[in-house]
Design a protein that fits this description.
The structure is a single chain. By secondary structure, the chain is of the alpha+beta class. The strands form three sheets. The protein has a four-stranded antiparallel beta sheet with strand order 4-5-7-8, with helices on one face. Helices cover 19% and strands 36% of the residues. Strand 7 and strand 8 form a beta hairpin. The protein has a domain of 102 residues: GTP cyclohydrolase I, C-terminal domain/NADPH-dependent 7-cyano-7-deazaguanine reductase, N-terminal domain (GTP Cyclohydrolase I, domain 2, 2-Layer Sandwich).
C-alpha cells in the first residue's frame, strides 16, 4: 500500500503536489534471529516415577520484548508434555522463563525456543508449547509448536 502526503499551495487551492511518504526500515535478518543465540540456564529435572500421564504448566504472566520496536510482549505460555524418564523442576522452569523478560525476541521464536529447550532437558515422549500473546496494535497472536516436529517435505 502506497501512502501519500498531499501538499496544497495556499495561493492556488485547485492544484496539489503529491510527495510519497518515506518508507520505514523493513524487518531484517538480525531482527528475525534476535534472541536465538542467548545462552539460557539449564532447566533442572527430577526422575519420573510413573508412566503415561500428562503435565500442563501455565505461565500467565510471561513477558518478552519485540526486537524491532522494543515494546513489551505480554502473554500466556502453556507447556503440555508427557514425561519419559524425567520431569521438569517447576522453579527451574520458572527461572528459565524469567530470562525472556528483557530479551528482544519474536513471539514465534519464543514458543519454538521454549519447546527446543524443554525437549533438550526433559526428553519427553511428546511436548507442546502454546503462546497466547496479548494484542498489540489491535492484533493478538497464538503460536503453537509441537514435538516431535512434523517432517518437512523435500523440495523438488
Amino acid at each position: 500500500m502506497l501512502k501519500l502526503c498531499l501538499v496544497l499551495p495556499q495561493s492556488q487551492p485547485s492544484t496539489a503536489t503529491i510527495f510519497p511518504m518515506p518508507r520505514l526500515p523493513r524487518y531484517t535478518p538480525e531482527h528475525a534471529a534476535a534472541g536465538l543465540d542467548v545462552k539460557f540456564p539449564e532447566i533442572e529435572t527430577w526422575p519420573n516415577q510413573f508412566p503415561g500421564y500428562e503435565i500442563v504448566i501455565d505461565d500467565p504472566e510471561f513477558t518478552s520484548v519485540c526486537p524491532k520496536t522494543g515494546l513489551p510482549d505480554f502473554g500466556i505460555i502453556t507447556l503440555r508434555y508427557q514425561p519419559n524418564k524425567v520431569c521438569l523442576e517447576l522453579k527451574s522452569y520458572k527461572e528459565y522463563l524469567h530470562v525472556y523478560r528483557n530479551l528482544g525476541i519474536f513471539q514465534e521464536n519464543v514458543v519454538n525456543r521454549v519447546l527446543e529447550d524443554v525437549v533438550r532437558w526433559a526428553k519427553p515422549v511428546w511436548a507442546e508449547v502454546k503462546g497466547e500473546f496479548r494484542p498489540r496494535g489491535g492484533i493478538s497472536t497464538t503460536v503453537v509448536a509441537r514435538w516431535p516436529r512434523a517432517r518437512r517435505d523435500k523440495k523438488p
